[in-house]
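re: ur question from yesterday

yeah so i grabbed the chain u mentioned. its 162 aa long if i counted rite. heres the sequnce exactly as i have it in my notes:
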Amino acid sequence: MIRLLFACFAALAPVSAVALSCVPYGVSDAYLAAAQSDAGYVPVIGTLTFDATLLPEVDWESRQEAPQETLLPARFSGEALSVRGIRTAFETDVVLKVQCIGPWCPSAIPGRMLGFLRKATQSYVLSINACDGFWFGDPTKEQVTELSDCMAGLTCTGWQDR
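ran it thru and got these structure tokens back, copy pasting raw so excuse formatting
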């Protein structure tokens, strides 16, 4: 009887009360997604600046969902990475595209980052969401090596291959 009551309660619980479950997503996954996309991506490492107070917030008290998509002006300054390991100075305006899934939003922090900027008509777009995306804040040496290996055609395994 208790199991039946619990099952009924769980079925009636609001979606926001259920935890978001994402598959493990790393630099290799982002690289493979960018490489398989028809859009052009530029792998970069450097500093992203934007006004973090403009990021979407969720009111957990009332279980309000955040907006599905928020576009923020940002600036990237750093280096573009090439297949042969060459780093070229790269600075550009960026549209930071923050996508929330229900009440779950990614936590982006201005600062050092590794990522993939999608070429758009007038600028570049950096997409992030609650489960994946093309931004890795404060990258580790291992993440930088992982990207270098992927770009050089060495080991590059996404979550589907693990």
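noticed a couple things. Helices lie at 2-12, 27-36, 141-151. also Strands lie at 41-50, 69-81, 87-99, 111-119, 124-129, 135-137.
anyway ttyl
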